[in-house]
Amino acid sequence: MLLILCFAFLSLLSGGLLGWTFLALAGLGNKKHRLSLLLLLPALAAGLGAVWIYRQTFISSPIVSQAKDVDVNSPATIYRPASRFQFDFGNIRIPGAYRFEPRLPEVNTAAALNYIELGVQAWNKKYRCIGCHVTGTYLLIRPMLTSLGPPSDEVRSFTIEAIRPYLKEGSERLLYFGHRSAQVVYAAAGLASWDQYVTRTLSPETKQVFELMLKIQQEDGAWNVPSCWPPLQSNRYQLATVAALALSLAPGWSDQAEGTAYREKVNQLRRFLKTNHPPHDYARVWLLWAGSRTKDLISQKEKLELIEVIWRHQQEDGGWCLRTFARPGEWGDGSRAEKLVSDQDFYFRTSDGHMTGLALIALREAGVSSLDRRVQRALRWIENNQRVTGRWFSSSLNTERYHMLTYSATCFALLSQWRCSVLSRPNP
Predict the structure, then answer these.
(1) How far is 204 from 309, CA to CA, in rounded Å?
(2) N or C: which end of the chain has fewer CB within 10 A?
């Protein structure tokens, strides 16, 4: 408050001097008009100054030196959320995410589920968009956690309605380019997950979205993606692994596609993944997950090599850091490189919920025992890093304002614990 008052005083003084000088030199108006303008200019300057200070004090980006010797785990390091709310719609207001949000003493499954459910509600109603990092992730992961409580029918219905306009004949042309193709792939994976874990049968809607997904597939077997929103829209290869995961999840779809034109589309996808090299280790993690579920997509030797890639990235605290899985210029189309290099996380490389949860999921899908000492170390990291809002923090690769990656981090962290049989149904 003292800072704001001081700045307001200086703004009034400097604005008044500027206004007086301008009017004196220009000789504008009579004395009364000059006085009015003289008061208006400093008032405007003071207002702008107060807004600037408020943003810097309350909703600014984290304040931290980029020097390599700064300890990010030190309480003396000052962090502030870059936005007051991460999700804000109607009566849903989830506070902004930041690295030093207080931690819970032990895992609270109910708090995590509450965060996931409220977050996707607010996102869908506010943006009306199948965001891969929110809606797409929810529909893929949440059905797998049905034993903790049923997922939201509303989210499934929203996804179907969002895709419905593109099911009309000829409308698929709108999906060949831009982010919509990625939305179709994530929608297919999510609906397939729902059919696998909730209804246990292939739905007509899932079948329709699968056919749409394969209809907009490119000749080389992949899908176009803008490559501008890593990591979940990182590149064509990573999106292809999500499509392969979708195909492996849908109950009975493979049998229905046998002998049809869609079978060749599936073979094209397999050839793409087998003949192209993953652009970075993050894509290799998704390849391991999809390959562990898809027959003959990866060999046993390749599976062991992918598992070893993940182990090489494990950090001393037991977790994994997303930023170590690709060089700055390898994310997306490379346009994030300058931002990532200037980011504090480029130096600190602290473990995060997104990568730790995803790595554990892929390892368990590949058959790694939950009793493995390295898995147990990772589980301890997850147990020690849930925040009071119920989420696990992960710093965004794109902007510092909302850190939406904490949403997928929370979904992945919960699923990794469930895969390791350390979660129980929360109390109602």
Answers:
(1) 39
(2) C
Residue pair 139/418 in contact (Cβ under 8 Å)? The answer is no
Domain 85-419 matching CATH 1.50.10.20: the answer reads yes
Question: pLDDT tens digit string along 81-108?
Answer: 989 999 999 999 999 999 999 999 999 9
Taking the C-alpha atoms of residue 254 and residue 229, their distance in angstroms, rounded to an integer, is: 31
Query: Residue 323's closest CA among 230, 417, 226, 225?
Result: 230
Q: Where are the domains of the chain?
A: 2-58, 85-419
Residue count of the chain? 428
Give the SS3 label for residue 158: helix
Q: Which DSSP string do the residues of 11-41 spell out, in sequence order?
A: HHHHHHHHHHHHHHHHT-S-HHHHHHHHHHH
Residue 95 has phi, psi (to 5 degrees) of: -55, 155
Each residue of 340-387: pLDDT tens digit?
Answer: 888 777 777 899 999 999 999 999 999 999 999 999 999 999 999 999
Q: Is residue 387 classed as helix, strand or coil in its secondary structure? A: strand
Residue 126 near residue 414 (C-beta atoms within 8 A)? no
Q: Is the pTM of this model over 0.70?
A: yes
Q: Which CA distances in Å does 55 have to 4, 50, 51, 61, 419?
A: 12, 9, 6, 9, 42
Largest CA distance in the chain: 90
Give the whole-angstrom CA distance, residue 108 versus residue 303: 33
- Give phi and psi for 91, each to the nearest 5: -95, 10
Tell me the one-letter amino acid at 20: W
C-alpha distances in angstroms, 105 versus 72, 392, 420?
Answer: 20, 13, 20
Bond prior to 231 in cis (omega within 30° of 0): yes
